Amino acid sequence: MHRRWALAFGLVVALGAPFALVAPSGAAPSGPDALRVDLDDILADQRLNGSHAGVVVRDPATDQVLYSRQAADRAIPASNAKLFTSAAALEALGPDYRFRTDVVAGARQQGSALLGDLYLRGTGDPTMLAADYDRFAEQVAASGIREVRGRLLADATWFDDVPLGTGWAWDDEPYYFAAPVSALTVAPNTDFDAGTAIVRVTPTAEGRPAAAQLEPATGVVQIDNRTTTSAAGGQPDVTVRRDHGGSRVVVSGTVPVGSQPFEDFATVPDPAEYAADVFARALAAHGVTIQGTGKGAAPAGARALASRQSMPLRELLVPFLKLSNNGHAEALVKAMGREVRGDGSWPAGLEVLSAKLSGLGVDPKVLRMVDGSGMSTMDNVTPEQLAVLLDNARQRPWFRSWYDSLPVAGAADRMVGGTLRNRMAGTQAANNVHAKTGSMTGVASLSGYVTAADGRQLVFSVVFNDFLANSADDLEDAIAIRLAEYKGAEDQTRGRAQTPQSRTPVDDPATRENESTLECSWVKAC
């Protein structure tokens, strides 16, 4: 932390208010005082009664704290934790870091036969698609191998075998935003939702079961199809749920005749087994036979038959941060542990994360991070430390890539606006605010950058906890809009900032989770 800011922040916290000149009696507040009055008004919303509302706003150019409320108090950050994880990964791994996946063999080849096992070895790449495994199979066949006189073994030993994070809710397990983490996995789409398969439900004839299938095709989960095709003209009403700890996916509900196929996601219990199954099917399609699948570490010195590198980290940041992808965060934590400490585990990765945050001016002693995504309710951070990171990151060589990867308010393009694409449109914050969102039940956070009306760039962090309403996103938006309108010394009190109605997820009563409290990208609503 800059020394001037550290001193100023301590005084602000002690006084419980930002620095500001007191306006003469009867005069309208101006400058930072006007901003304070308006932000106080926003935070007086009755939905925040009895809750934690931590907010800090500062001007990096002057180290001036423009507003502070509970800024040094710890709270659950939700997906604002990804700011810490992404910055630490850029420091530890570098913006050019790539994951690698290989097909290797230790046995010799005799004619068209491989006289031993074939290995699929991963390092955590969350961007591996079924098409990539098909290209691997094509390369194996092109090498002349038609028969593997052994098994296809999945080597996921680059990471440990702990699939779910500490403090993750057991009833989130079936949902794609809580997919298990592995060094070897498959993503069913170009959002790279690794460790999941798409369940596609297609109507048939009225009164008949609908057709349900998995994309990509796999046998690691089994569909229990309880759907019915309903009369034309209605809306699909389908629930997809994997049994806790099991491989059965129950698909129930109705789809109307003539409707487009309904799609939802199911997590898989074992991503490495999933990857091996998808690859085995691709090998068969290319005329390569194997003697079954399993798991095992590839022998040292095994020769590569096929290889693929992921996009560099600076590009992966876009789907990671724009769409708040939890799996990407956890893969990066374990990758940091493996690359720096030789241990691809959460504990090792989080040690590296803490060390890199310290180098960015963040004080790890006042934080608790038990995962990289913010899924855990055991994570505790402060708006103050989020603002420290946002400020100091501006000096790093990777800053532009990081900044451009943050969601942009009101930007319609999904891979620009991300989780903010449906928020703050038509205001001064639109196409201005670059910030990371965070949402879960009783938690809302928004931290990032905004260019004020007088041209200065401000950093801000808002973290709400323990509110009972479904959402407090509009209060975050009101704060960000007010900051976009800020005019410095010439600023005048505006009253409560207004924001257009945001398109937020609607709760589906047929599911156990409350979609209206989650990141919009977690329920594919943005």
Describe the secondary structure blueprint for this structure.
Layout: H1 3-15, H2 32-43, E1 52-59, E2 64-69, H3 81-92, E3 100-105, E4 109-110, E5 113-114, E6 118-122, H4 130-142, E7 147-148, E8 152-155, E9 196-202, E10 211-215, E11 222-230, E12 237-242, E13 248-256, E14 262-267, H5 271-285, E15 293-295, E16 303-309, H6 313-322, H7 326-341, H8 346-359, H9 383-393, H10 399-405, H11 414-417, E17 434-440, E18 443-451, E19 457-465, H12 473-484
Parallel strand pairs: 5-7, 6-8, 8-15, 11-13
Antiparallel strand pairs: 1-2, 1-19, 3-6, 3-16, 4-5, 9-10, 9-14, 12-13, 17-18, 18-19
Short description:
One of its GO terms (biological process) is proteolysis. With 526 residues, the chain is an alpha+beta fold.
Question: Can you describe what's shown?
Answer:
With 526 residues, the chain is of the alpha+beta class. The chain has helices at residues 3-15, 32-43, 81-92, 130-142, 271-285, 313-322, 326-341, 346-359, 383-393, 399-405, 414-417, 473-484; strands at residues 52-59, 64-69, 100-105, 109-110, 113-114, 118-122, 147-148, 152-155, 196-202, 211-215, 222-230, 237-242, 248-256, 262-267, 293-295, 303-309, 434-440, 443-451, 457-465. A five-stranded antiparallel sheet has the order 2-1-19-18-17, with helices on both faces. Strands 15-8-6-3-16 form a five-stranded mixed sheet, covered by helices on one side. Helix 3 crosses helix 8 (346-359) and helix 4 (130-142) crosses helix 5. It is globular.
